[in-house]
Design brief:
The structure holds 2 protein chains of 2 kinds. Chain A is of the alpha+beta class. Chain A has one domain. Chain A has 6 helices and 8 strands; from the N terminus they run ααββααββββαββα. A 6-stranded antiparallel beta sheet of chain A has the order 2-1-3-4-5-6, sandwiched between helices. A two-stranded parallel sheet of chain A has the order 7-8. The longest helix of chain A has 45 residues. Chain A starts with 7 loop residues before the first helix and ends with a helix. Chain B is an all-alpha fold. Chain B has a two-stranded antiparallel sheet with strand order 1-2. In chain B, helix 4 crosses helix 7. Chain B is globular. The two termini of chain B are 15 Å apart. Classes of the chains: A alpha+beta, B mainly alpha.
Chain lengths: 268, 230
């Protein structure tokens, strides 16, 4: 019996079967590959933290890459702390990281927390920094802090997360033990414009942060200013020309996040 | 000129390696190259040819998707309802691309990071939809596979050629770390001390366009039949 392949019934049946088959294949593939992908993400996070405390990425000795990031992380990160939004310590860990342990500061998904809870606040209080600061205080969000030791120096690595022009941007900022001087910074993005906003992940931009001093107590703890602005202050860095919105996003996420940690540093 | 449906006469028990089938593979390599003659898939050719390893992974991904999609569509060509055939093709291509993307993320994370959105954008690569519409819908799986291999390799060699030029002159190295091979410095330090510099323009996308242009130029000056008359 010949089937009319252009009949409505056949078209709908074909579409339904196709969707079910494709859905099943993709779902099972996704589930089977997920553990590997999660492991890579953990490595990447460790690489970025090591990058903030001054390790270049690469495969030569003294550089950090996927295969040695775990070892380096264990060697240099001495304490993992989580704070609440008032800057009070919730949890301190020094043991090995177990994946899936929600109480471990390392497992706090900063990007996810930003997206689900902080992003809309940041948008609402865009023009009102004092209002944002107040609103942030009552948030139920944990903020991780990584205490590291390198070459006899205590360094504090703070993850930051925000929005660029096209999508999420994030990074890690390392402070020296005066909690004011930036030791290093590492940024990354999801889909900023190549050659413009995407340059935030390049070294030439990141080295501009090293040695800068945070301006605690004011509305702008840190600021990324328009590329080429004259008379840059100690708490400002030059943004990327042509990548102004992404650069501003970097400044915004640092400013907003550092204010939370400021309260913790004040208690030390 | 090549998007018209190529009908293969159903010759009795035609061998997969007959002369006609071999032409399916060899034509897209030169006289009917998807990039330099049909000017399809240019976007990815410009974007990911900074490094050879990226070009290799991208080419393999496109080759996989192209072969998979061509064979599957060819197998289903008699049952795909005409009215939803574009949707069906898209679903097949998209699924294959997602498979490639997820596998790369799991097994080659560094390269996957560099290729970023361009793997996802294989879905919109005109070469793939073009071959499905123009060939796979009207031909048997065997020739369809040959056609996919031909076009995939035709795409790949242009990408590789461009990437080789750009990486050698732009970075002065050949970096195959993502493939687990290592990084090679091409010019000795003495060259740089004498004043040799890597050409930064090579790293930027416009140079890819120029390199592709040079390849097209060479190709057309060798085969005058390719030059259109206006």
């Amino acid at each position: 019996m010949a089937i009319d392949k252009n009949s409505n019934v056949f078209t709908f049946t074909f579409a339904t079967i196709m969707v079910v088959v494709v859905g099943t294949i993709l779902a099972s593939l996704f589930l089977s590959l997920k553990p590997l992908q999660v492991a890579h993400e953990v490595d990447k996070k460790k690489m970025d933290i090591m990058g903030a405390i001054g390790f270049e990425s690469g495969s030569e000795p003294g550089q950090v890459n996927r295969s040695n990031s775990g070892v380096l992380f264990d060697e240099f990160v001495v304490e993992r702390i989580s704070l609440n939004s008032k800057g009070e310590v919730i949890n301190t860990r020094t043991d090995a990281i177990t994946s899936g342990d929600k109480t471990d500061p390392f497992n706090i998904d900063v990007k996810k927390e930003y997206k689900s809870k902080i992003k809309k606040l940041a948008k609402k209080f865009k023009k009102d920094p004092a209002g944002l600061e107040k609103a942030m205080k009552s948030l139920d969000v944990s903020f991780p802090l990584f205490k590291c030791e390198r070459e006899g120096k205590e360094l504090y690595v703070i993850p930051v997360s925000g929005t660029g022009l096209w999508g999420p941007i994030w990074g890690y900022v390392a402070l020296e033990n005066d909690f004011k001087t930036i030791y290093g910074a590492k940024f990354d993005h999801e889909g900023e414009t190549p050659g413009l906003g995407a340059e935030i992940k390049e070294d030439f931009f990141q080295v501009r942060f090293t040695g800068k001093t945070l301006n605690y107590g004011s509305a702008d703890v840190f600021e990324v200013v328009k590329g080429g602005t004259p008379n840059i202050k100690d708490y400002q860095v030059d943004g990327i020309t042509g990548g102004t919105i992404t650069s501003k996003g970097v400044g915004e996420m640092m400013n907003r996040t550092l204010k939370i940690y400021e309260r913790y540093f004040n208690t030390l | 000129m090549s998007t018209e449906t190529q009908e293969l006469q159903a010759v009795k028990k035609e061998s997969l390696f007959s002369k006609k089938n071999k032409r399916l593979v060899t034509d897209p390599l030169s006289d009917n190259n998807p990039i330099t003659i049909q000017v399809l898939g240019i976007c990815s050719a410009l974007a990911i040819t900074v490094q050879i390893q990226q070009a290799i992974m991208m080419s393999l991904s496109v080759l996989f998707v192209l072969i998979g999609a061509n064979v599957i569509v060819s197998l289903l060509r008699k049952v795909i309802p005409d009215r939803i055939r574009i949707i069906v093709q898209l679903v097949i291509v998209a699924s294959l691309v997602i498979i490639v993307n997820e596998v790369l993320k799991a097994y080659a994370p560094d390269i996957s990071e560099k290729l970023s959105v361009f793997v996802g954008l294989i879905i919109t690569n005109c070469i793939i939809m073009g071959r499905l519409e123009a060939f796979a819908l009207a031909n048997k799986p065997g020739p369809s596979m040959m056609d996919a291999i031909g076009n995939g390799i035709g795409y790949a060699w242009i990408l590789l050629a461009v990437a080789i030029v750009r990486e050698i002159f732009g970075s002065g190295t050949i970096n195959l770390e993502g493939l687990g091979i290592g990084k090679f410095q091409l010019f000795p330090e003495a060259f740089y001390e004498m004043g040799y510099m890597n050409n930064n323009l090579m790293i930027l996308p416009p140079m890819a366009l120029i390199v592709v242009g040079v390849i097209i130029w060479i190709q057309r000056s060798r085969n005058k039949a390719l030059i259109e008359e206006h």
